[in-house]
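Weekly modeling sync, notes
Attendees: S.R. (lead), two postdocs, one rotation student

Agenda item 3: backlog of single-chain predictions. S.R. asked that every request posted to the team notebook include the full sequence so nobody has to chase files. The rotation student volunteered to paste the first one in as an example of the format we agreed on. Action items at the bottom.

Example entry:
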Amino acid sequence: MIKKIFLFIFVSLLAGCASMGPLSFLPQNKASDGYTIKHKLNKKYPGYPHITIEYRDYEKTYNERVEMLDNMLADDNTRANGLESVPKGGMVLIRIEKSIIEAANTDNFIYVLYRDGNEFDRKEGQHNLPYYDVGDYGTTWHNTDVLSIQKPIIDSVTLYVIDKMGGRDEFTISIQKNSN
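Predicted structure, as returned to the notebook:
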């Protein structure tokens, strides 16, 4: 009888975890568009809530800006200013998921960029109210912030996303070298 109860609980837990997606709380390392991103969690604050990033290089950012300006029917002056302001190192989109609204506000975050062990940029998040969705496990609050990288990435940079309420995530963005 105890084995049947254990089996029932095990199968129930397994089914519940399966609906969560492919271990969504684990750090995600990805490779695409000529770069890799390695995510290292601060061991003091593992798991949910979590931070993810997406890197867009100069070329992709520039092309997106051209498309936006074309869509806006921008005049020549607006177009020139818009294209001149594209950051040479690209942009990082930072996605935040938290279980409470206050914690997902981007003014609770500091973004610090390092190259070769030296800090070269720091930005504090600005007040931005998050949006939410309601799922099987309750309400999740989401927010997005954008970090411009003014200098081109030659090899790699490390981005620290520091949560003022506790925790820190580390992301290393590396440019993949062509092997010709």
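Discussion: group reviewed the output briefly. Helices lie at 2-18, 58-72, 76-84.
Action items: rotation student to repeat for the remaining queue; S.R. to check formatting next week.
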